[in-house]
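Hi everyone,

Forwarding the result from last night's run.
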Amino acid sequence: NADQSYIPASNMKVVTSGAALRVLGPDFEFVTRLNFDAAGNRAVVIGSGDPAFGDPKLLEEMGISAEDLLDIWAKALRDAGFKKGGELVIDDRVFDREYVHPTWPTAQLNRWYCAEVAGVNFHTNILTIFAKPSADGQPPVLRTEPESPWLEIRNRGRSISKGQQTAWAARALNSNDITFNGDARLSAKGVDVALHENPAVFGRMLATRMAGMGIDPRVVRLAESTEDFSGTTTVHTVRTELRTVLKRCNTDSYNLYAECMMKRIGQEVTGTPGSWRTGAAVVRMQLQETLGPSTGHTFIVADGSGMSRENRVTTRAMTDWLMELKSEAALREAFIGSLATTHEEGTLEKRFRQRSPKNDLYAKTGYLTGVSALSGYLIDP
């Protein structure tokens, strides 16, 4: 059934990441800038759509936390001369402000894997809630990472000393109205919940750290459509190599990373704020350039991660795409190296836990209800 269309689930990331690699190039970097306008006492965060900015897993590998990063930025502004009562602007205009794909499952939008997609992302756009049990039957003591004292969390949890931990968090649709539920026994494991309108949330987080250093801004807002910040001075930058983003996308199957790449290539090609519409158009353009005009019948591109059940691909077209990426010498190493193997932690290691193939396997898994997909390369050394 090589020419029958199937839902690819997360195998869609193979298509998105390959297209991003071809458009942006293997040496591309996402750059998030912290700028300062001394004359106007204005701080500006200029986003690049980087999904890795403040990613807790990557920060842990560097030996710092999200709190440390926020403190570094607040200190950079203080040292640059920012004064109390100034303005903090979050420039997220690299992407549009449609944060949620219209075909994603509404009931799952508070889960980490359905995190909203923005021009400024932080901490993978999730809040981690840690619960410290108190007396049996009493509400646990909650703390969050990143610290967000201005977020009110309804605590409906219960402390237990025996039994199974069942703690979970819910967020009301289109809000940051969060409720903590369930039984809390183990204080070490955090509970994740996806946040809403993350550029504004990040602005509040940074403003809170600035206030702690005595330079709290009077106004925290998003950039207006016509504002120009070209006269501001950069006081700190965070850079993420595309290879890091590819690896997190394909080995860890992180949806946010795929969606940010899709929107970013839309912005790169059109010069307008990246969107799912422009990103999908660029992906289709890349497929047609490499595989021919008939790909319109073999690929249907809805989103970048495969969360949408509207994506479609034939197995023949997916194989042709993989072969094309392998044939491009400038891209081969970066692309194949981003895929999971059976020898490292990731989605593939779980799939082949009982028996690993004798050859080298680089591949991408994909799961949705009724879908189990596997695409990649089996290489004889």
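Residues 255-270 form the longest helix (16 residues).

Cheers,
N.
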